[in-house]
Write a structure and sequence with these properties.
Elements (H helix, E strand, L loop, with lengths): L1 E5 L5 E7 L6 H14 L10 E7 L2 E7 L4 E2 H4 L7 H20 L12 E3 L5 E3 L40 H16 L9 H10 L14 H10 L11 H18 L26 H14 L5 E6 L6 H6 L2 H6 L3 E6 L10 H15 L3 H15 L3 H5 L5 H4 L11 H19 L6 E6 L6 H13 L5 E7 L9 H10 L5 E5 L5 H12 L3 H15 L3 H13 L3 E4 L4 E4 L1 H6 L6 H10 L3 H13 L3 E2 H8 L3 H13 L3 E5 L4 E5 L2 H9 L3 H19 L5 H13 L7 H20 L3 H14 L5 H16 L3 H14 L3 H17 L3 H14 L9 H16 L4 H5 L7 H20 L1 H18 L3 H16 L4 H18 L2 H15 L7 H16 L3 H17 L4 H17 L3 H19 L14 H10 L3 H17 L3 H10 L12 H16 L3 H20 L1 H18 L3 H17 L3 H17 L3 H18 L2 H10 L1 H4 L4 H4 E3 L6 E3 L4 H19 L3 H16 L3 E8 L2 E11 ...
Parallel strand pairs: 8-11, 8-12, 9-10, 10-11, 30-32
Antiparallel strand pairs: 1-2, 2-4, 3-4, 5-6, 6-7, 13-14, 15-17, 16-17, 18-19, 20-21, 20-26, 21-22, 21-23, 24-25, 25-26, 27-29, 27-30, 28-29, 30-31, 32-34, 33-34
Helix pairs in contact: 3-4, 3-7, 4-6, 12-15, 15-16, 16-17, 18-19, 19-20, 20-22, 22-26, 23-25, 23-26, 24-25, 24-27, 27-28, 28-29, 29-30, 29-31, 30-31, 31-32, 31-33, 32-33, 33-34, 33-37, 34-37, 35-38, 37-38, 37-39, 38-39, 39-40, 39-41, 40-41, 41-42, 41-43, 42-43, 43-44, 43-45, 44-45, 45-47, 46-47, ...
C-alpha cells in the first residue's frame, strides 16, 4: 500500500506500508532492507528516505514527497523531445553514479521509478529491489525487476554476474522509451521478451522517430549492448557524454558527432567474466547441443580440477539454448549432503517447475496437459520427491504401493516420461549436473536411464566432476559403462589449466592495460595459480584488497608494483587462500560462515538464526562482510532467504575453519532446528537433510532414548529413500539406525528387514544375505521370517538361480502352513486340481468377483510368496508353478480377494486351458480375473493378468488380430507399474500375434527393431532372445535364407538357439524354434526338413502349454504329413491334426476354421475327391481372408493353385497361383512370392517374379518390367478384387468395390450389378467412368423398372446361368431389339452370372460405348473367377445386413446407452436382473391438456400427432448426450448419465424445437401444443425387470419420482421447465444458466421439502429480460409464500406483475394464494 500524506511535523511524505496478512516476516525484512539502503543517500536526484517504522503487525517506510509525476505517466501523453529526454537521463545517471559508488545496485530502473517535477527536477525512486553488494551473481529465481527493462544477465538465463552495468542497460531502455514512446523489446509471452533481450539487437530508435540525432542513437545502442563489457562501464562516464550532448544542444540546437565512452574506467576492479582459453571446448559443446536438438539425446562429461572453470564453461550454453527456445536447468550436488537422494536432479527440476509456473495461462495450461498425458496414471510417484509438481498437477490420484524392482522401474519410467514432457525438437533441454563426484548412485542410475531409454529425446545432459575425486568404485563409472555401448552418446571434455597467454588476456581486459604492460604480472600470477581460473581470480581480488593493485584515474588505468606483489606471502592453493580471506573477517562473520557451511549449499537464513538463537536480520548483518567480499551471496524467493557460497571451495574452506570438536554439536543443533520444521513440512528432501544433520551429531548424543529416537528417524528416512528408489542412501540410513538402537529390540528387527530389502535393491547381495540370516536367526515370528524369505526369493530370481528360488518359496510356504510337494508329478497336480475345483464349487465367474476382500494375513502372505516365485517357477519348475497357482486359487475361493488373487485365478485359467482343454471354463475364470482387477483397481498386477488372458486363454475364444492392440496396452500397463519383465513379455507375444494375423512384414520390421531395442534396454534377455527369433522369421520370409540353413541369421540361429534352450530347460524357445523353422522349410518346398522339426517339436509342448503355437504346430503337421506320405499313415496323421483343429474351431472358428477347411481340401485332394477339394479350397481362402490372416490366406491360395494345376485346370491354377504370388508380395514375403513365380513360371507366364515385377522395399509398390505385364496386371487385379470382396462385410460398400474393380479391369465405361432381392433381381449399383474416377450410384431399383440396363439380356443370363459376350450389341440380331440397346447403341457388352453352389447370386453387366470388341474371353474368365468369391461375400454381407438391421431395430426399443450403462455389448448379453447403481439426471416431459387435444382426432390422427411431436423433440436428447428411456403415451422419460448440464441444455433445446413445431401447426390453423418438463438429479438403479418370457429395462429410484413430480408442478407454477435444487447443485457452473426459485414443495413419500427452480433460457429475449429485471422482487415474494406470509407474498407478486404483467409464474401465484 502506498499513500501520500504528512508526518507529525507537517512534512509531505509518501508512506509505503504493509499490514495484516501481507505483513509476513519476508515482506517486513524487505521494507527494512529498502530503508537501510535508501536512507544512506542525500542526493538531489534521489528520493530521500525519512524513517522506518514497525507497526503491529506490519511495517512502513516514510519518504519525502517531492511532488511531480512518474516518467511513465508523463509518457502517456507522448514521447519527450530530445533535450528533455537527455536532461532526465542525465539526472538519473547522476543518481546512479552515487548509488553505484556506495556499492548498491538499484535493479529496477524504469520510467515508473523516475519522478519528474514541474520545475524540471528529477528523482530516482523505489529501492525495494536494490541490493548492497559489490558484486552479485544472480540465479533465475532472483531475477527481480520489470521484464521489459531487464538486462540480459539479469534474466537468470546467462552465465554472467550482474553488476551496476545492468542498471545502465535499464536506463538505456528507459531513454529509448522516452524518445519513441515504446520499449525496444516486446513479445507474445515472457520467453519471447527474454529471448529478445538476450539475442535480438536493439532496434534503432530512428526507425520510429527519425529526428533523433545519430549520436543519441549510438549512445542508446551502447547502453543496450548484450555484453556488459561493451556498454558504458560507469554512470560517471555516461553522465559525462550526456553533459557533452546537452552542452551541444544549448550551443547549436543539436547534437554533433562525438566519441562515446572516453571516461570509461571502473572505480572498483571488475575481473572480466569472459571465458579464456576455452573456445574449442565451447564450440564442441555447441555442436553436441545442436546434435541433441534433432531428437537424439547426448551426454557430455566435463572433467578437471576444482576451480578450472567447468561450471563457467557449461553455462556458456545458456545463450544458444535460449536462442533455440530451449530450457537450461541446473542442479548441483553438495559435499555435505551426499546421502540426500537425487539432490542435484531435484534442484534442477524444481527450477524447471518454477519456470513453468511463471508461464502465461495458455502456455501453462498446454504444459499441464502434456504432463498429465505423460505421467498418467503415476504422477503421484514424483510428487513425493518433487512436491512442487503438485502445484502444477494439483489432483494426482494415488498410486498402488509397489515393492522392489517394480517400484524402481515404475519410478524410473515415470521420471523419463516427466523429462520427455518438457523436451521436443522445438524446445530442447540442457540438464547441467555439477559436482557429480558428490552424487548418490541413485541419481546417476536415473541419468543413465534417461539417456538410454529416452534416446529419441532432444536432451543434452552435461555432467561436471573433479577427476581427482572420482575413485575406481565411484558410481560415475557405472554411468559411463552403461552409456559406452550406446552409439554417439558420450562426449568428453577435459579442461586443463589456462596458459600464460590466457592469463595475460584476462589481465588486459580486467586492468584495461596493454599486453606488454601486464606481461610480468601475468607470469607471476600464472605461476602462483597454476593457471587455475578460480585461484587466479582469488589472487587478483586479494591483491586489490591488500592495496597492491589500485586505480590510477589520472592515467585512466590500473597500476601495481611487481616487487611488492612478489614480496606478499600468500597460500598457493584455493582453500588456503580462501581461508586467509575468511580469517580476515570479523569473528562473528567467521562463526556465521561456519554455520552456513555446515548446513550445506543454499542454507536457509531462518534455520541458521534459530540454531544460533539469532534473528534472521542479525545473520545477514554478521554475514555482510562476506557478502561484500563475494564469498557468499543471499538469494531470496520471496518467502525464504538462503545463503549460497560463490564456489564450493569457499564452502569447503569455511567448514574446515570450524574446529573439529565443534562440528558434531553444531550439526546436532542444526538438525534439531530442522526437525522442528519437519513437523509442519513433511517433504522428503527436508527429512533427509534433518537425518543427515542429526547423524553427523550422533557422537555427542548420549541419552539412550534420544539415540533410539534418532534410530527411528533413520528408519523413516530409509523407508522414504527406498520408496524414492534411492537404495544406497536408504541402506545407509538403515545401517545407521541399526548402530544406534538396541539390537534385540523390535525397532532393530524392522531396520534389518528394511535394510535387507534395500541391500537387495542396491545389489549389495552379500550384505543382504547377512541381514536375512540375522532375521531368520533372531526371529520366530512367521511373518517376519516370510518377509525375509521373500527378499531371498527375489535375489535368487534376479541372479538366475531359479531352482533355489523355488526351494526358498516352498520353505516359506511351509512356514505359512501351506506345504507343497517337492515333486508332485501328475497325481499331485490332479490332487491339487481337485482341491481347487472343490473350493470353487459351483461358483460362477461373477460369484468369484463378488467374493469378500481377504482379511487373513497368513493367506495374504502365502499369495505374496506364490506371486514372488512365479517367474522363477515358470522357467525352472512348471510343476511347482502349476500346483502353487492352483493353491492360490483355492485360498482365494476359501478366504477372499486380494490383488494377488487375480494372478492366481488367471493362472488357474491357464491350467484349465492347457491341462484340461476346458476352454470355456478357462475363459470364464480368466475373464473373472480381469473383472477382479477392475473391482480392486489392481493396476500393479493388471499387465500380468492380461498377459495370461491373451497368451493362454483368449485366443481359444477370440480372433487373433483383436489381441494385438491389447498386448500393447498391457505392456504399457506393466510399464506404468514398473513390471518390465511382463512389459517386454507382452511386446513379445504381441509380435507373435502380429506375425500370425494381419501383417505387413515391411511395416513391422522397423517397429520391431524399436521394440527389440526397448527390451534390450530393459535387460530382459530371455524375452529378447525369443523376440530375435521372430525377427529372424520375418527376415527370412522377406529375403530367404541368409546362410545355408533356415532360421539362421543375424538375429537368431536355430541350431545354436535350440541347443542352448534345451540346455537351460527353456522348452518354449526350443518349441518355437522347431515350429517356425518347419514353417520356413515347408514354404520353401522342403517338406522332409519341415517334418524333422515337427517330429521334434512335441517334446517341448509343455513349454508352450495353451499357447497359440500349438494349433499352428498341428496345422503344419497335417499339411506336411500329407506331402511326406500321402498314403494311409500320412492321412491318419493329418486326420489327427484336423481333429484337434476341429475341436479348437468349435470354440473359435475365426482362428481355426480356415485351417480345418484347408486340411479338408488337402485330404479330399489326396483321396481323389476333386469337386469337394475345389470347394474346400475356396472356403478356406474365404475364411482366412475374412479374418485378415494374410500369411495363411496366401498359403491357402498357393495350395489351391497347386491342386488345380495337378488337375490340369490351368485357368484356375493361373488364378490361384497368381493370387498367391501377389498375396505373398503384398504382405512383404518377397521370397515366398519369388519362389511361387519361379516354380510355376510356365503357368504364370514369366520366368520369375523378379523379371516381371520389381518390388520397392521402401514403399511396397510395384513397377512393371518387360516380361509378362498383362498376366501380372490380371493377377494383381484379381488379388485386389478377391481381397476386397472377401474382407468387406457391409453390402453397399462391397457392391461399390466390386463394381469399380470390374469396370476398371474389364475396360468398361459402364457397369451394373444386379442382385436377387425378395424373389426378383434388383439393380444395386451403377458404375460410370468419369474422367479419372469411377462414380457409383447405389440407388436400388427392381430390374423390371430399371432403365439403365438391357433388361432382356440380364434376364437371359440370369435364367440360363451363362455369360453373353457381344462385340457390337447394336448389330446383334438377337439382342439389338432390346429397348436399352436400341436407344443407347452400346458397342461392346459383357453380361456374366454370379453363381454360388450353382444358384444365382447376381448378374454383372458391363459395356463400352466407345469401341467394339473391347471385351476378350480373358475378361469373361476373370469375371467368372471372381464370381465364386463375390457370391460368398455377398451372401455374408446380406447376412450381416440382416443382423445389423435387426440390431438397429432392437436399438429402437433398447437404447445402446442403456446397454452401455449395464456394461453390455449387445442385447443378447442382457440377463434378467442385470443392474447398476449410479448418479443420473432424469427428465420428464408431458403434453399439457392432451386429452382435450386428442378428443378432436381419430385414433390414426392421434398416433400421427404423437409421433410427429415426439420426432420433433427426440433429437435434443442425442445432441446433448442423453437418451430416451421410454415413451409413456404422450410423455417422454429421458436419462442423462454424464452431466446434469446436458439435461438442462436438452430441455432448453426441446422448448425451442417445440416453438418450431408450433409454428408449423399455426400455418395449418391448429392450436399450439404446450409441455411441461421436470428435471431431477440423484442416485438411481438401472436394470432389467420381468419374467422368463418378457422383460424390460427400467430405472428404479426416488430420482424418477422427483423428476415426474417436478414436471407435474410446471402447471401449478405456470411455467414450462422446472429443475430441483439437487440438479442445480450438481451443475458444473450454475451461472451458465438463468434461473429463479419458484417455491418449496413436499413430495409424496419424502419428509424433506424440495426447492424447485424455473430455467429461463428457453424464453424469448423480452420475456427473459423482464424476468431477470424482477428477480429480486420475485425472490422476496417466493420467500414470503414459503414462510406463510401470504398477504406480503401477494403484494410482492403484484409488484412483479406491475413491472411485468405477462409473468406467468407471478399470475399463477396470485391465483393459488389465499386472498388474506
Amino acid at each position: 500500500m502506498v499513500v501520500r500524506g504528512v508526518d507529525e511535523s507537517g512534512t509531505p511524505v509518501v508512506v509505503k506500508a504493509c499490514r495484516g496478512e501481507q505483513a509476513c516476516n519476508a515482506v517486513i525484512e524487505s521494507f527494512r532492507r529498502e530503508y537501510r539502503i535508501g536512507s544512506q543517500f542525500d542526493h538531489a536526484h534521489i528520493v530521500r528516505y525519512l524513517e522506518f517504522r514497525v507497526l503491529s503487525p506490519g511495517a512502513a517506510v516514510l519518504m519525502e514527497d517531492a511532488g511531480g509525476t512518474s516518467l511513465h505517466e508523463r509518457l502517456q501523453a507522448g514521447p519527450l523531445d530530445v533535450a528533455t529526454a537527455l536532461r532526465v537521463t542525465r539526472a538519473v545517471a547522476d543518481a546512479l553514479a552515487a548509488v553505484h559508488a556506495a556499492g548498491v545496485l538499484h535493479k529496477d530502473v524504469k520510467p515508473a521509478n523516475i519522478l519528474t517535477m514541474a520545475d524540471g527536477g528529477v528523482r530516482l525512486a523505489n529501492f525495494r529491489a536494490a541490493v548492497a553488494v559489490s558484486r552479485e551473481s544472480t540465479s533465475r529465481a532472483d531475477a527481480e525487476g520489470t521484464l521489459a527493462y531487464l538486462a540480459p544477465e539479469r534474466t537468470g538465463r546467462m552465465n554472467r554476474s550482474a553488476d551496476h552495468r545492468s542498471d545502465l542497460y535499464s536506463l538505456g531502455v528507459s531513454l529509448y522509451e522516452a524518445l519513441t514512446g515504446v520499449v525496444p523489446f516486446v513479445g507474445k509471452d515472457p520467453l519471447d521478451v527474454v529471448h529478445a533481450h538476450m539475442a535480438r539487437p536493439a532496434p534503432d530508435p530512428r526507425e520510429r522517430v527519425d529526428s533523433i540525432p545519430e549520436p543519441v542513437a549510438q549512445l542508446i545502442a551502447r547502453l543496450l549492448r548484450k555484453d556488459p563489457a561493451e556498454r558504458y562501464q560507469s554512470a560517471v562516464s555516461l553522465r559525462h557524454d550526456l553533459d557533452v550532448m546537452l552542452d551541444a544542444i544549448g550551443r547549436t540546437g543539436t547534437v554533433v558527432a562525438m566519441d562515446l565512452g572516453t571516461r570509461d574506467l571502473e572505480a572498483d576492479l571488475r575481473i572480466s567474466d569472459k571465458l579464456y582459453g576455452r573456445v574449442p571446448q565451447v564450440e564442441q559443446l555447441v555442436r553436441v547441443f545442436d546434435a541433441s536438438k534433432t531428437g537424439r539425446a547426448r551426454f557430455v562429461q566435463i572433467t578437471g580440477p576444482s576451480g578450472v572453470g567447468k561450471s563457467a564453461l557449461v553455462r556458456r550454453l545458456q545463450g544458444p539454448v535460449v536462442a533455440a527456445h530451449g530450457r537450461f536447468v541446473e542442479g548441483k550436488f553438495d559435499q555435505l549432503q551426499r546421502d540426500v537422494p537425487y539432490r542435484g536432479l531435484l534442484l534442477a527440476f524444481r527450477q524447471l517447475l518454477m519456470e513453468v509456473l511463471h508461464l502465461p495461462d495458455d502456455a501453462l495450461h498446454a504444459q499441464r496437459k502434456r504432463l498429465e498425458q505423460a505421467l498418467a496414471p503415476n504422477a503421484a510417484v514424483l510428487v513425493d520427491v518433487l512436491p512442487e509438481l503438485a502445484d502444477l498437477l494439483p489432483e494426482c490420484p494415488p498410486v498402488p504401493a509397489l515393492e522392489g524392482p517394480t517400484a524402481r522401474n515404475r519410478f524410473l519410467l515415470v521420471f523419463e516420461a516427466f523429462v520427455r514432457a518438457f523436451t521436443s525438437t522445438d524446445h530442447p533441454m540442457v540438464l547441467f549436473l555439477d559436482d557429480i563426484q558428490w552424487a548418490d548412485a541413485s541419481s546417476l542410475d536415473l541419468v543413465a536411464r534417461l539417456l538410454v531409454d529416452a534416446r529419441e529425446t532432444a536432451l543434452l545432459v552435461v555432467a561436471a566432476w573433479r577427476d581427482g575425486e572420482v575413485g575406481s568404485g565411484h558410481p560415475v563409472h557405472d554411468l559411463l559403462d552403461t552409456l559406452t555401448g550406446v552409439e554417439d552418446v558420450v562426449h568428453k571434455v577435459a579442461l586443463q589449466p589456462l596458459a600464460v597467454d590466457d592469463v595475460s588476456a584476462l589481465l588486459v581486459d580486467s586492468l584495461e592495460s596493454e599486453t606488454a604492460d601486464v606481461a610480468a604480472l601475468a607470469d607471476l600470477l600464472h605461476g602462483r595459480s597454476g593457471g587455475n581460473p578460480f585461484l587466479l581470480r582469488l589472487l587478483l581480488q586479494t591483491l586489490v584488497q591488500e592495496g597492491l593493485v589500485t586505480p590510477d584515474h589520472h592515467a585512466q588505468r590500473w597500476s601495481w608494483s611487481i616487487r611488492d606483489i612478489r614480496a606478499l606471502p600468500l597460500p598457493d592453493d584455493a582453500v588456503g587462500l580462501a581461508l586467509k580471506r575468511i580469517a580476515g573477517f570479523p569473528d562473528e562473520t567467521q562463526r556465521m560462515l561456519q554455520s552456513v557451511a555446515a548446513l550445506g549449499d543454499h542454507a536457509p537464513v531462518r534455520t541458521v538464526a534459530s540454531a544460533l538463537s539469532f534473528e534472521p536480520t542479525e545473520v545477514l548483518k554478521d554475514l555482510a562482510p562476506a557478502i561484500d567480499a563475494s564469498v557468499v551471496v543471499p538469494e531470496s524467493d520471496g518467502d525464504e532467504t538462503r545463503i549460497r557460497f560463490m564456489h564450493d571451495r569457499l564452502q569447503e574452506a569455511a567448514y574446515q575453519s570450524l574446529p573439529e570438536a565443534d562440528r558434531a554439536p553444531l550439526h546436532l543443533k542444526l538438525g534439531k532446528v530442522l526437525r522442528a520444521e519437519l513437523a509442519a513440512n513433511d517433504r522428503a528432501e527436508l527429512l533427509f537433510q534433518v537425518t543427515d544433520q542429526l547423524d553427523r551429531g550422533e557422537e555427542v548424543i548420549t541419552d539412550a532414548s534420544e539415540r533410539t529416537d534418532l534410530a527411528r528417524l533413520n528408519l523413516t528416512a530409509g523407508r522414504r529413500a527406498k520408496r524414492s528408489n534411492a537404495y544406497a542412501p536408504a541402506l545407509g540410513y538403515l545401517e545407521t539406525g541399526l548402530r544406534l538402537c538396541d539390537p534385540a529390540s523390535e525397532l532393530a528387527m524392522d531396520l534389518r528387514q528394511e535394510a535387507a530389502e534395500a541391500a537387495f535393491l542396491a545389489t549389495r547381495f552379500e550384505r543382504m544375505d547377512e541381514l536375512v540370516d540375522e532375521v531368520l536367526d533372531l526371529s520366530s515370528d512367521v511373518f517376519e521370517r516370510v518377509r525375509a524369505f521373500g527378499v531371498r526369493i527375489n535375489r535368487l530370481s534376479v541372479v538366475g538361480d531359479n531352482l533355489a528360488a523355488v526351494a526358498v518359496a516352498r520353505q516359506s510356504l511351509a512356514n505359512l502352513q501351506e506345504d507343497l510337494p517337492r515333486k508332485p508329478g501328475l497325481p499331485g497336480i490332479f490332487l491339487e486340481l481337485g482341491r481347487t475345483k472343490m473350493a470353487i464349487g459351483r461358483r460362477s465367474a461373477s460369484d468369484l468377483v463378488d467374493l469378500p476382500m481377504l482379511e487373513d494375513p497368513r493367506v495374504a502372505a502365502a499369495l505374496e510368496v506364490i506371486w514372488a516365485a512365479s517367474s522363477a517357477a515358470y522357467f525352472s519348475s512348471p510343476e511347482f508353478l502349476t500346483v502353487s497357482l492352483m493353491r492360490g486359487a483355492t485360498l482365494t475361493a476359501k478366504h477372499g480377494l486380494t490383488p494377488r488373487s487375480t494372478y492366481c485365478i488367471a493362472g488357474y485359467s491357464l491350467i484349465l486351458a492347457g491341462a484340461l482343454q476346458d476352454y470355456d471354463g478357462a475363459y470364464e475364470m480368466s475373464s473373472a480375473s480381469l473383472l477382479m482387477i477392475e473391482r480392486m483397481d489392481a493396476r500393479d498386477v493388471e499387465g500380468r493378468v492380461r498377459f495370461i488372458h491373451h497368451s493362454f486363454v483368449a485366443h481359444w475364444k477370440e480372433p487373433l488380430a483383436s489381441a494385438v492392440s491389447h498386448y500393447r496396452a498391457a505392456s504399457q500397463t506393466c510399464l506404468d507399474s514398473g513390471d518390465i519383465e511382463y512389459a517386454s513379455g507382452n511386446l513379445l507375444f504381441g509380435a507373435l500375434y502380429t506375425l500370425l494375423s494381419t501383417v505387413s512384414l515391411t511395416d513391422i520390421e522397423g517397429r520391431w527393431a524399436e521394440e527389440a531395442e526397448f527390451i534390450t534396454r530393459m535387460g530382459q534377455e530371455r524375452n529378447l532372445n525369443d523376440f530375435r527369433l521372430l525377427q529372424q522369421v520375418v527376415s527370412e520370409l522377406r529375403n530367404g535364407k541368409t546362410r545355408n540353413a533356415w532360421l539362421s541369421g543375424p538375429h537368431w540361429d536355430a541350431d545354436e538357439g535350440i541347443a542352448k534352450a534345451v540346455e537351460r530347460g527353456d522348452l518354449m524357445t526350443a518349441g518355437w524354434g522347431h515350429i517356425f523353422r518347419a514353417l520356413l522349410r515347408w514354404l520353401d518346398g522342403d517338406a522332409d526338413g519341415a517334418n524333422q522339426d515337427l517330429e521334434a517339436a512335441p517334446a517341448f509342448a509343455d513349454g508352450m502349454m495353451a499357447q497359440v503355437m500349438l494349433p499352428l504346430m498341428a496345422f503344419l503337421d497335417g499339411l506336411v504329413a500329407l506331402q511326406v506320405d500321402p498314403g494311409s499313415s500320412g492321412q491318419k496323421r493329418a486326420q489327427k491334426a484336423r481333429k484337434k483343429l476341429q475341436v479348437w474351431a468349435a470354440h473359435c472358428e475365426e482362428n481355426q476354421a480356415h485351417r480345418v477347411l484347408l486340411l479338408d481340401a488337402e485330404l479330399h485332394a489326396v483321396a481323389g475327391r476333386a469337386a469337394e477339394a475345389s470347394h474346400a479350397y475356396a472356403e478356406a481362402i474365404t475364411a482366412a481372408a475374412r479374418q485378415r490372416l494374410d500369411l495363411e490366406a496366401a498359403i491357402c491360395w498357393e495350395r489351391a493353385g497347386r491342386f488345380h494345376l495337378s488337375q490340369g485346370d490351368e485357368r484356375q491354377a493361373l488364378y490361384h497361383l497368381g493370387s498367391a504370388e501377389t498375396a505373398y508380395a503384398r504382405m512383404g514375403a518377397e521370397h515366398a512370392a519369388r519362389r511361387v513365380a519361379r516354380v510355376h513360371s510356365a503357368i504364370l507366364g514369366h520366368a520369375t517374379t523378379d523379371d516381371a515385377v520389381a518390388t520397392s522395399e521402401a514403399t511396397g509398390s510395384f513397377r512393371l518390367t518387360n516380361s509378362g505385364p498383362t498376366q501380372l496386371i490380371d493377377q494383381t487385379s484379381l488379388f485386389r478384387a478377391s481381397e476386397a470382396v472377401t474382407e468387406e462385410i457391409q453390402l453397399d460398400r462391397l457392391v461399390e468395390k466390386l463394381a469399380v474393380i470390374l469396370v476398371q479391369n474389364a475396360g468398361a465405361r459402364r457397369g451394373v450389378l444386379c442382385l436377387p432381392e425378395r424373389g426378383e433381381l434388383t439393380v444395386h449399383a451403377c458404375a460410370l467412368v468419369t474422367g479419372d474416377d469411377v462414380e457409383v450410384d447405389l440407388t436400388r431399383a427392381p430390374l423390371r423398372e430399371a432403365t439403365a440396363v438391357p433388361r432382356s439380356l440380364v434376364q437371359l443370363v440370369a435364367r440360363t446361368r451363362k455369360a453373353v459376350l457381344l462385340d457390337d450389341a447394336s448389330a446383334s440380331a438377337q439382342h439389338g431389339s432390346d429397348p436399352f440397346i436400341r436407344d443407347h447403341a452400346p458397342k461392346s457388352v459383357l453380361c456374366v452370372p454370379l453363381l454360388r453352389h450353382g444358384s444365382l447370386a447376381g448378374v454383372v453387366y458391363l459395356e463400352n460405348s466407345l469401341t467394339a470388341g473391347a471385351f476378350t474371353p480373358a475378361r469373361v474368365e476373370m469375371v467368372r473367377l471372381l464370381s465364386s468369391q463375390a457370391a460368398i461375400s455377398i451372401d455374408n454381407a446380406r447376412l450381416f445386413e440382416e443382423v445389423t438391421g435387426l440390431s438397429r431395430a432392437y436399438q429402437r426399443f433398447v437404447p445402446t446407452q442403456f446397454l452401455d450403462l449395464l456394461g453390455k455389448e449387445s442385447i443378447r448379453d442382457v440377463n434378467l436382473g442385470d443392474h447398476v447403481e449410479r448418479v443420473l439426471t432424469v427428465l420428464f416431459c408431458d403434453i399439457r391438456s392432451f386429452t382435450s387435444i386428442s378428443e378432436s382426432m381419430t385414433p390414426g390422427e392421434n398416433f400421427r400427432f404423437v409421433n410427429h411431436f415426439l420426432a420433433a423433440l427426440e433429437p435434443a436428447f442425442e445432441a446433448h448426450n442423453g437418451f430416451i428411456d421410454k415413451y409413456i403415451g404422450d410423455a417422454i422419460m429421458g436419462l442423462f448419465p454424464h452431466s446434469p448440464d446436458d439435461a438442462v441444455k436438452a430441455a432448453v433445446s426441446m422448448l425451442r424445437r417445440l416453438e418450431v413445431f408450433n409454428q408449423e401447426r399455426r400455418s395449418h390453423g391448429l392450436r399450439d401444443v404446450e409441455i411441461g418438463i421436470g428435471i431431477h438429479t440423484g442416485v438411481a438403479m438401472l436394470g432389467t425387470v420381468g419374467g422368463r418370457a418378457r422383460m424390460d429395462g427400467t430405472v428404479i429410484s426416488d430420482a424418477v419420482n422427483l423428476a415426474s413430480r417436478a414436471e407435474g408442478l410446471c402447471k401449478h407454477y405456470g411455467v414450462s421447465l422446472l429443475v430441483t435444487q439437487a440438479t442445480l447443485e450438481a451443475l458444473e457452473d450454475p451461472a451458465d444458466f438463468n434461473m429463479r426459485t419458484l417455491g418449496r414443495v413436499r413430495v409424496k413419500g419424502r419428509q424433506a421439502e424440495v426447492d424447485v427452480l424455473e430455467v429461463l433460457d428457453a424464453d424469448d429475449d423480452g420475456m427473459r429480460q423482464s424476468k431477470l429485471a424482477t428477480l429480486e422482487g420475485f425472490a422476496e415474494a417466493v420467500q414470503a409464500e414459503i414462510e406463510g406470509r401470504f398477504v406480503e407474498a401477494r403484494a410482492a407478486y403484484g409488484a412483479v406483475l406491475a413491472a411485468h404483467p405477462e409473468d406467468p409464474a407471478a399470475n399463477a401465484a396470485l391465483q393459488r394464494l389465499p386472498s388474506s
